[in-house]
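User: Just a sanity check before I run the rest of the batch. Below are the structure tokens for the first item. I only need the designed sequence back.
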């Protein structure tokens, strides 16, 4: 009877996870980091013929795609280009529908990777607290957030999860370790994950070293390494075809990001070595993130020779040594957070402390779920979608202060190509009839509300941004007004 109840609980959790992924795909319009858009969707826009400057640009905005640099892979923009061509064949010519379908497909792909992830490692990590641990992994805020991104981190990490699970099953089964079909499949996925996101090499190399030292098998290693090289070769072939000559994108990435001669990565800022230990706590769901960080340090100490320690510790050390740091660089570590949290809580003997921590972890996870499920990572994309769906191309549309059609001085042609032209507003509002005004400046909003203008769109509910004066100063909440309507 208990096993039946457990099965029902598991199915409910899986269903909840599916719903969370679909909700995230629907609501999280936009992008988390600039690279997610300008290195992926804008290159797709170049292939679609609507962004002529993205490749070979001399302005420096797309320096990674200049002829002498060539350090970004073509594979993901090509994948999306193929999808969009199919969508256009079906009569779908709306860029917001394109990205919605891509986010749904990506979320479903990530969702299935989490199911595989869970069934591969649950018996290893979760010794007790079955319901809590199962609930946390399938409601973990980070998974639907990551999987609904059009980023290389998302696709690369999802492929890594599938491949690592397959490899883990092989190396822990004497019966299957030499299963050629499974080994080739797992190894090729490992390689392709690096084609999408080359920095995953820092997570993959520890796997190779661990297998070499603790599970040495010459046949296994030859197939493993050869297939990974073939996958990386696939990336070089794709990149070379589109550049018109042999191009080693991986070397170019290393040369222009990490060498002393160029070292462009450090031009974006240098942070101290302990940056990730602080930012994990601050940015990745406090309480849950604290338990995760403490848990993983305990795990490293108690299990120094374990493959999970090698992967997570090595990745953390390597990225801590690189000057420029961003929290997304350690996403390959944070994907293990539900397992590590479960492991850490399993160590606690005092039931009162355990129950308090469980409650706090669940609350912090729910808060971040709500924040990441329903609020766009970049509020300007929501503005574009409203304009596309509600404003006639013949209407007059203006902005006050900051141009919403610019993101860090770059134009997101993937969306703005389909929007009406916008100009900076000059003059008196009362002298104009039937115009649209866009602003994110709080003082403008106060003045416009006193005029004949009506608010028809806000990125976030005013009741939320009014809670904190700093949120108003950040200018993250965009307002669209209709003014002088007869």
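Assistant: Here's the designed sequence for the first item:
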């Amino acid at each position: 009877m208990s096993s039946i109840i457990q099965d029902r609980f598991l199915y409910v959790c899986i269903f909840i996870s599916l719903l969370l992924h679909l909700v995230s795909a629907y609501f999280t319009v936009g992008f988390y980091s600039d690279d997610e858009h300008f290195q992926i969707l804008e290159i797709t826009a170049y292939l679609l013929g609507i962004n002529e400057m993205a490749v070979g640009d001399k302005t420096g905005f797309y320096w990674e795609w200049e002829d002498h640099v060539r350090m970004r892979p073509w594979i993901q923009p090509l994948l999306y280009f193929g999808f969009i061509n199919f969508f256009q064949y079906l009569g779908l010519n709306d860029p917001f529908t394109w990205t919605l379908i891509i986010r749904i497909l990506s979320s479903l792909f990530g969702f299935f990777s989490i199911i595989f992830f869970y069934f591969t490692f649950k018996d290893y990590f979760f010794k007790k607290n079955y319901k809590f641990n199962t609930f946390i992994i399938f409601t973990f805020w980070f998974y639907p957030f990551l999987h609904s991104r059009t980023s290389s981190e998302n696709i690369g990490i999802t492929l890594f999860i599938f491949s690592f699970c397959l490899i883990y099953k092989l190396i822990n089964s004497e019966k299957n370790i030499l299963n050629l079909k499974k080994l080739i499949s797992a190894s090729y996925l490992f390689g392709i994950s690096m084609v999408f996101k080359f920095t995953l090499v820092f997570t993959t190399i520890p796997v190779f070293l661990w297998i070499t030292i603790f599970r040495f098998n010459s046949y296994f290693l030859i197939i493993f390494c050869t297939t990974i090289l073939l996958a990386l070769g696939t990336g070089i072939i794709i990149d070379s075809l589109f550049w018109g000559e042999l191009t080693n994108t991986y070397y170019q990435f290393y040369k222009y990001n990490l060498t002393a001669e160029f070292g462009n990565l450090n031009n974006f800022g240098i942070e101290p070595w302990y940056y990730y230990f602080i930012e994990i706590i601050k940015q990745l769901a406090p309480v849950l993130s604290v338990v995760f960080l403490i848990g993983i340090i305990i795990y490293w100490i108690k299990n120094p020779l374990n493959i999970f320690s090698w992967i997570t510790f090595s990745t953390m050390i390597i990225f801590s040594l690189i000057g420029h740091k961003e929290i997304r660089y350690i996403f390959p570590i944070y994907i293990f957070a539900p397992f590590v949290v479960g492991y850490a809580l399993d160590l606690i003997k005092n039931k009162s402390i355990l129950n308090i921590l469980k409650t706090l972890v669940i609350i912090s996870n729910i808060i971040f779920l709500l924040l990441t499920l329903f609020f766009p990572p970049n509020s300007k994309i929501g503005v574009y979608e409203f304009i596309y769906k509600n404003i006639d191309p013949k209407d007059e549309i203006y902005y006050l202060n900051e141009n919403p059609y610019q993101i860090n001085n770059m134009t997101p042609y993937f969306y703005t190509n389909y929007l009406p032209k916008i100009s900076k507003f000059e003059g008196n509002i009362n002298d104009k009839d039937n115009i649209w005004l866009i602003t994110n400046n709080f003082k403008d909003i106060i003045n416009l509300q006193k005029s004949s203008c009506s608010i028809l769109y806000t990125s976030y509910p005013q009741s939320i941004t009014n809670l904190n004066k700093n949120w108003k100063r950040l200018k993250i909440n965009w307002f669209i007004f209709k003014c002088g309507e007869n």
